[in-house]
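Reviewers of the previous submission asked for a worked example of the structure-prediction workflow described in the proposal, so we include one complete record here. The input consisted solely of the amino acid sequence. No template or homolog information was supplied to the procedure at any stage.
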Amino acid sequence: MELRVPSGGSIFDVFGADALSSVSGVGTDAAIAAVTPAQLDDALGALERGAIEYVVLADDPTFVQVAGSGSGPYQLEYNPGQVEHQVRVPEGVGISDVHLVLHAYLAGNPAWAQSFTWQSAGLGDTPATGGGFLKKLFGKR
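From that input alone, the workflow returned the following structure tokens.
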């Protein structure tokens, strides 16, 4: 699984100079392949401090992404591999939920998605009410 954060000067705030040998570029993101839970914690700490704007945890073609800072709320989104099916938690989540979700996703535990009410992110033709695809994916509306 790959961790993506904004590239630029803030990457030093996240991982420090010693860890940068494992960082590569993906578009405008800095990426770490085979991310560890400790590296994820470092990125989430930087997100909470406001040193970076977002964190993406990708298992191509799927990914979970979160944006925000401080105590939140944080925008949490999941893309199952097709942009038209991207979903989000409309009310946002707190930083403790961000940690729980991303660590569960990293561990391959599918239960991370069942604690929230999801709706379409509005990027395609997924019904905004969360029917059909969302019910199948997350087991609830």
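The longest strand covers residues 54-59. We consider this example representative of the routine output the project will generate in years two and three.
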